């Protein structure tokens, strides 16, 4: 019978303050969708995000709650 030894790590996870998005490709897609929403409409922007594989949660937040968008 093997006894598994519990390993501990010296690495601590420190939460980062709200910072700039690290996924630049998704950021570009989301920014393009916001422009599409302003110029063409929400339906088109939502379809664009879906085709690009952006999660539904992000798409809904970005397109329906602009006050929650990151501002840089």
Would you give an account of this structure?
The mean pLDDT is 78. The chain starts with 23 loop residues before the first helix and ends in an 8-residue tail after the last helix. It has 3 helices and no strands. Helix 1 (24-39) runs antiparallel to helix 2 and helix 2 packs antiparallel against helix 3. It has 72 residues and is mainly α. The chain has a domain at 24-67. The protein has helices at residues 24-39, 42-51, 56-64. The relative contact order is 0.13. The longest helix has 16 residues, at 24-39. Helices cover 49% and strands 0% of the residues.
Quickly list its features:
3 helices, 72 residues, 49% helix
Offer a quick outline of the entry:
With 72 residues, the chain is mainly alpha-helical. It contains three helices and no strands.
Q: Strand portion, in percent?
A: under 5%
| Helix/strand order | HHH
**Which runs of at least 5 residues are low in confidence (pLDDT < 50)?**
none
Q: What is the strand tally?
A: 0
Radius of gyration: 19 Å
Mind describing the biggest β-sheet?
none
What is the CA-CA span between the terminal residues? 56 Å
Large-scale geometry: globular
Class from helix and strand fractions: mainly alpha
Count of DSSP-assigned helices: 3
In helices, the fraction of residues equals 40-55%
The overall pLDDT, averaged over residues, is 78
SSE order and pairing:
Elements: H1 24-39, H2 42-51, H3 56-64
């Amino acid at each position: 019978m093997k006894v598994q030894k519990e390993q501990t790590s010296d690495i601590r996870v420190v939460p980062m303050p709200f910072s700039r998005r690290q996924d630049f490709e998704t950021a570009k897609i989301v920014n393009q969708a916001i422009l599409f929403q302003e110029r063409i409409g929400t339906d088109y922007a939502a379809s664009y995000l879906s085709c690009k594989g952006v999660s539904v949660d992000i798409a809904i937040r970005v397109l329906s709650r602009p006050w929650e968008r990151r501002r840089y």
